[in-house]
Amino acid sequence: MESLLSKLTKLLEEEYGKLRGVSKQIKFLRDELSAMSAALQMLADAEQLNPLMRDWRDKLRKLAYDIEDCIDSFMAGGPTYWDFGAKRAVEISERHKRYNFADLPSSSSTAPGVDPRLPALYEEIDRLVGIGGPKKHIIQLLAMETNRHIVISIVGCGGLGKTTLANQVYHTTKSQFDCAAFVSVSRTPDIRKILRDIAKEVGDIDITLDDDERQLVNKLRKYLQEKRYFVVIDDVWDAEAWTFIKLALPNNDHSRMVTTTRSVTVAKCSSSKDRYVYEMEPLSFTDSKRLFFRRAFGSENSCYPHLKDVPDIILRKCGGLPLAVITISSMLTNKHEKTEWDRVESAIGSALAEKPEAEKMVSILSLSYFDMPHHLRTCLLYLSVFPEDYRIEKQCLINRWISEGFVQEEQGQNAYDRGEHYFYNLINRSLIQPVDIEYDDQAEACRVHDIILDYIKCKAAEESFVTSLDAADHVHTSSEYKGYPFSLDSWHPGAPYSLQKLCMQGYHIYKVPNWMGSHRNLRVLELLVMFVRPEDVEILGEISSLLFLTLCTAGGSNGRIVVHGNNRFRSLKYFFLSFFACGTAIEFEATSMPKLEHLKLVFPAHNVECLNGAPNMGIQHLSGLSKVDIKIGNDLYDGTLGYVNAAVGALPNSPTIRVKRSNAGCVHFKSECLADRSIVDSF
């Protein structure tokens, strides 16, 4: 919604705001959007909505999308398109007036929910699997010969078993201390309640309901001053809560504390030293299998013969997440039919959304989701467009966030730097896993755990955030057709203002359909085209609002891909082009892609013949460039680096350059290579 308000402000500041009657309409739209933004944020913070409120929210969100369509269409079409936009604005306004947000109930229930972490505190030890090693390690840290006060922090994503581990350590160790306490912290902590709970568990402290935080801190410090205590603070969400809690716990010699958290930042600030931060690891496949069999069949060595292969497939999707293993095995207890197991295996995400047995896991993952600010939730939901086990490149992801309007520039910080901050914030919250960590501890990419991805996809569907092409009734895209040519000619997604993002992951097409050039609001496009024809480039160049284009191809139909000038690709900011076969060169003509900021090219070519000529790409014509990334074969590396350095020398923005060597051998096109998902991983 913030991006829409920015667009309206931009309209008022530019020549559009000077047109007769237009300024008034724009101000009207801005007021409407501001009101809707506040209402949507209120609804977004509600973890449960009754059907009436959910229906109202969905209608309200649709209104916001409609208004955005009108704005983008107007900006793309100019003043002559305003009549259509004005009519839609009036229609949207009338629809908005029919809903009265103030009269809606705030939630579906006022009863407090049960803490989803509670079962972990009472889990029988003989039902636990894979906890022996981590438990031994934590106890060894606690038993280190030191007089100092030690704080150990256990960190990991929700459902990894942090509370269970801390609880087992607590019950094994507490008898060695004068007093002990185990307390849990909620996402919105009540500091007074937490301090009272600690006081009740450590001993006979005279506390009253009237005691404020300062009085409770003083009483606890006085009682604990001469004692060796052991306190576990479970599920700390932010550093501020930890700061208040630790005030009540003096740094007594020989005393010990354990915290659990999902945040790496909180873990580092709460632990005594970095070596006292214990990062939880997923269960090994063997331990996952033991746990699954014990829960599903009652024995680690039992499995119905006709089901012997299915558990392995399910466990790979669980990825060692204990809560996922327990949840899914509980769903399948006493289920003997292979069809039931196959159904759960093929649709784990939807099964988790529908099954009451999964409520605990959904609740735990929801804690992480609703703890995030709204802009981070949006960035996380965007990850639902990627398939399982996909390596998501950091630069590509951040640029896509920017092109979607999820990341805005702020004073003193550009959009990319802010997007990078969001990226590491998600890593810090243990919601995405860093991949390819460089010497400077910077991650080049990330992956999403399959179970977390399933949760994100369910949430994205619930929020109407993304629509899968598979959901279109008139398009047949079953999994058996993945990797085979797919036609978009007969699929036309409605009016020219309706389509904003199209990602054809897992499918390739023979040609770019003609209708695509007429879409005024298409901002993000990801295509895998068998061979790029000159007319395909022309069609793509006519998409006036296109900001982000990812194109994977075997090459150009005539050995070259030429991007002509004359105002083509006039809005494009990010262009990623990846070849998975040799024999094609790329050429940018003068005045082409005038607003392009980031160019990324991937060539498997290792010699001039494979590149169909010298690496003279016309990069010097891309006047808006600020970043160039090229990956090319060893033999062409030096020549390409020299050319790019010379080409960008006269460009006004002094682009940063990164040319990397490709270890892939020369590839000549074969149709079966299109079925290989690895070709898309080069983006």
Structural Rg: 29 Å
CATH domain class name of the largest domain: Alpha Beta
Number of helices: 23
Please give the order of strands in the largest beta sheet.
10-12-13-15-17-18-19
| Total number of beta strands | 19
CATH topology of the largest domain: Leucine-rich repeat, LRR (right-handed beta-alpha superhelix)
Determine the fraction of residues in helical runs and give it as a percent range.
40-55%
Alpha-beta content class: alpha/beta
Uncertain stretches: 78-82, 101-112, 470-486, 667-683
Distance between the termini: 29 Å
For the record, the count of structural domains works out to: 5
Mean pLDDT score, rounded? Answer: 76
Shape designation: globular
| Percentage beta strand | 5-15%
Query: Biggest sheet, open or closed, and with what strands and sense?
Result: 7 strands, parallel
CATH architecture of the largest domain: Alpha-Beta Horseshoe
Describe the structure.
The structure is a single chain. The protein has 683 residues and is an alpha/beta fold. The chain folds into five domains: 2-103; 118-279, Rossmann fold; 285-362; 372-451, Arc Repressor Mutant, subunit A (Orthogonal Bundle), CATH 1.10.10; 467-682, Alpha-Beta Horseshoe (Leucine-rich repeat, LRR (right-handed beta-alpha superhelix)). 40% of the residues lie in helices and 14% in strands. The chain has 23 helices and 19 strands. The strands form five sheets. A seven-stranded parallel beta sheet has the order 10-12-13-15-17-18-19, sandwiched between helices. The model is unreliable at 78-82, 101-112, 470-486 and 667-683 (pLDDT under 50). Keywords: Coiled coil, Leucine-rich repeat, Nucleotide-binding, Plant defense, Repeat.
